[in-house]
Design goal:
This protein is of the alpha/beta class. The protein folds into 2 domains: 144 residues, Rossmann fold (3-Layer(aba) Sandwich), CATH 3.40.50.2300; 30 residues, no CATH class. It is 43% helix and 19% strand. β1, α2 and β2 form a beta-alpha-beta unit.
Amino acid sequence: MKRLEMLKEAVPAVKRVAVLFHPTVSGNVSQQQQTQLEAKALGIEIFPLQTKGPDDLESVSSALTATRAEALIVLENPMTFVYRKRIMELVARNRVPVISDSQFYPPAGALMSYSVDMSDQFHRAATYVDKIIRGAKPGDLPVEQPTKFQFSINLRTARELGLTIPQSLLVRADEVIQ
């Protein structure tokens, strides 16, 4: 998982990472499981934090303390998207860096995000719509994986956490929030 590698590059000493995900969103579950597998290769211990709704969010801060997590990965789903500012407020209490799979998290206070480029996805979707309008059967169209990603870094958050982001990350960023 690219996000875990980037987190390790930004915070080399990180050994304990919590992953906030929704247990009924299949994409979140598979990403959490993949993160768990890849963490072993990086010497990182993963702590899954399930959240099904806004009432579960209050436990995020205490769960970070209980697990002694040194960072948090937020996997986007409709609930975490809507409550992203609240999640960032709760995490700020613990002073841990956050990386997400959504470009909307760094402006809300996350340290970084590595996400699918949504404008590229919309453009590609329009291509599919055009093909269908011209007579293609949707079932005959290939399923395409995203090929364009966006990497964002929030330097304001880095300063607040006392982190110095390596130049090797900064030059790869598509967006740097000052």
